[in-house]
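Hi support team,

I submitted a single chain yesterday and got back a structure, but I'm not sure I'm reading the token output correctly. Could someone confirm the output below corresponds to the sequence I sent? I've pasted both exactly as they appear in my results page.

Thanks,
R.
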Amino acid sequence: MPDEQKPTLAGPSRPLGSVEIPQFYLPGGSKGVYAPRLYGAATIQFGTRRQKIAETRRVAFLVPIDPQLRAVDWDTATPTEVMPDQLLKEPPVRADSLPLPAAAMKVQTFTRWAKGFDRWLARTQRVELPGKSEPGEPASLGPKRGGVSVELVAIVWELA
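Hi R., thanks for writing in. Yes, this is the structure output for that exact sequence:
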């Protein structure tokens, strides 16, 4: 990787970005460099009267923020067990931070990423239907209409 493409350290404190964009630290880790990630958490309701299904899930995902791109690809997100109430306001250990990409500091861009999270969940989250389904019936079910409630989308710092 040429020198001009290597991410440089922002320094001992994390870059601040906009005060309107929530930022937290992930718990865990003991050494390394803080790298920014996009975090999304939501409650999803699945339901159908016909199959008598009523299920609620709480989910959370992390996606890398590519410093070169303005878009976030939620399809690259990985699930995390860390729920919003477990995120930290202060770093668990002292460490340097990678720079926060310029796009991640813009409220308009961040808002677009959050809306993308909501749409991605509605498109990708499924519940398997029990028993045999009749020919032509789906084997899984997406969230019910209005069944995705985004709890939090934030920048989180993870020791990497």
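A quick pointer for reading it: Residues 63 and 74 are 6 Å apart (CA to CA). Let us know if anything else looks off.

Best,
Support desk
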